[in-house]
């Protein structure tokens, strides 16, 4: 895709997914769906694992919510259960004084067409909230 490799980012193999009870996947968006590299032909049995996702698009019309919906169809085929954040982020969901990615499906940011835009403080706060939220849900449901 023309992007330099990020050797400092750890990789996980499908079998290592069995060690987790829940996951938050980050998807770059390509034409309203997660990038092809994120689609899995075969994966370890991840049945009954909770999942959420966050997104990065080039622009506001880049397809953050569409990516969320298409990611759900991919991940439920592997038995994962989707946990949206809904409106649990509170007032930050309705912030209109700055550009902000994300939605009720998950946190998000707009990277710009060349990837130069960095997430704002508000976008990072929403992502942190989402991580805590899915951890809380996963912990509650694991007890039951």
TrEMBL record:
Catalytic activity line of the entry: a quinone + NADH + H(+) = a quinol + NAD(+); a quinone + NADPH + H(+) = a quinol + NADP(+)
Region forming the signal peptide: none
Gene Ontology CC: membrane
Top-level taxon of the source organism: Eukaryota
The protein's Enzyme Commission number: 1.6.5.2
InterPro entries in UniProt: Flavoprotein-like_sf
One term of GO molecular function: NAD(P)H dehydrogenase (quinone) activity
Names of required cofactors: FMN
Family label: Belongs to the WrbA family.
The protein, known as: NAD(P)H dehydrogenase (quinone)
